[in-house]
Amino acid sequence: MKIRVGILGATGAVGQKFISLLEGHPWFEITAVAASARSAGRAYGEVVNWIEKGPIPEAIARLEVQEARSDHPNLACDFVFSGLDASVAGDVEEAFARAGYAVISNAKNFRMHPDVPLLIPEVNPEHLALIERQDWGSSGYIVTNPNCASVGLTMTLKPLHDAFGIKQVHVTTMQALSGAGYPGVASLDALGNVVPHIGGEEDKLETEPQRLLGGLEVPADFETSAQCNRVPVVDGHTACVSVSFVRPPSSLDAVKKAIRAFRPPLEVNGLPTSPDRALELLGPENAPQPRTHVDLGKGMTVSIGRLRPCPLLDVKFVCLVHNTIRGAAGGAILNAELLAQKGKILRKNSEL
Ligand code: NAP
User: Known catalytic residue: 170?
Assistant: First the structure.
């Protein structure tokens, strides 16, 4: 019997990606979908504006959409993924945690809460210990995954921080349209254009990597300056990054070696959504590119290229992350798999 999961925000871009990625999942099956009052009460297949490739899985298309409400946190499932809009995610996710559900969230609302893990399984699985400090008056808890651009940056910084200690980071992103949800940026703003502002994004990039690379109590001690741009790319956030180190490496080869030697903690290997390679250092001087490399590792591999000396800091490179897979739904599914493997997500005895 699989573990039953509900999707909060099931009609959105991230919600739809959950539905695509969970089709045929060996451990989890979707038994409930929820969204706003605008969508509630009708079959999922009738209300959703489906933007994923391929048809809506038949069993999901037939499910009646429930309203994701903070005053009635009740879905026929064992735990929930949240792809809710941040304007409602705080209240609704807290209500589900209080009602005893494990909430695996993509939204920003609880990411910096001191007792809520901000998790990338390959980077900081030990942060799951924070769950024990949560007290929602039930067995429920909340685990979050980082901002989509933070995921790519942090995974790339992880082996460098372990080997050399990060001192300073300068990052400029070129972020895909799908990162703004659906319908997102108006076509007349996006096409043939670059929008040099994404509300709140720079602050997330300047704080989340330190939390992920730090201990339970104290974030890692480095400074970041971020500039974020929206570009007319469908999927894939690209970042141009310069880094200085506390213990500068002896050569560029030492940096390459550290990236290539990166191995996720053993407990992550073999999880159904874990890619063969979490990080891939690419050789060609024009890589990575979203169109070519965004789907590496079924969208779960972060690719790195153009590694070279930086005349201002120590080294510079380009990294690329699939924003709705590794940066959102795929990352959250990997988080849930790690929790399930640790016995923190169980099938409840209640009948549907
Ligand atoms: P989206 O396409 O705008 O979807 C938002 C979802 O929230 C929809 O299902 C919507 O339901 C639901 N919703 C909105 N208002 C609601 C309300 N008052 N009550 C209940 N449900 C409500 O957004 P998205 O891109 O999927 O992003 C979802 C979340 O993930 C956001 O918090 C976002 O910041 C985060 N995130 C997104 C990405 C990405 O790459 N897109 C990456 C990482 C994290 P209706 O359809 O019924 O309105």
Answer: no
Whole-angstrom distance, CA of residue 79 vs CA of residue 93? 11
Write down the catalytic residue from 161, 237, 293, 322: 237
Q: Is 322 noted as a catalytic residue in this protein?
A: no
- Cα of 79 from ligand 1 centre, angstroms: 18
Q: Ligand 1 centroid to 106 CA: how many Å?
A: 9
Q: Which residues contact 49 (CB under 8 A, 6 or more apart)?
A: 11, 182
CATH number of 148-323: 3.30.360.10
Quick count: other Cβ atoms within 10 Å of Cβ 288? 25
Asked whether the whole model's pTM tops 0.70, one would answer yes
Structure tokens at 223: 């400074």
Nearest CA to ligand 1 atom 33: 107
Domain spans in the chain, listed from the N-terminal domain onward: 3-146+329-341, 148-323
Residue nearest to atom 29 of ligand 1 (CA): 83
Q: Where are the beta strands (DSSP E) in the chain?
A: 3-8, 28-35, 65-67, 79-82, 102-105, 141-144, 166-175, 223-230, 237-245, 279-281, 302-309, 315-321
pLDDT in tens, 92-123: 999 999 999 999 999 999 999 999 999 999 99
Which atom of ligand 1 is least distant from the CA of 38?
47
CATH class of segment(s) 3-146+329-341: alpha beta
Count Cβ neighbours within 10 Å for each residue of 65-78 and write b for 16 or more, e otherwise: bbebbeeebebebb
CA 218, 242, 325, 282: dihedral to nearest 10 degrees?
Answer: -130
Per-residue pLDDT tens over the stretch 209-241: 999 999 999 999 999 999 999 999 999 999 999
Distance (angstroms) between ligand 1 centre and the Cα of 182 equals: 8
Q: Looking at ligand 1, which residue's alpha carbon is closest to its atom 25? A: 181
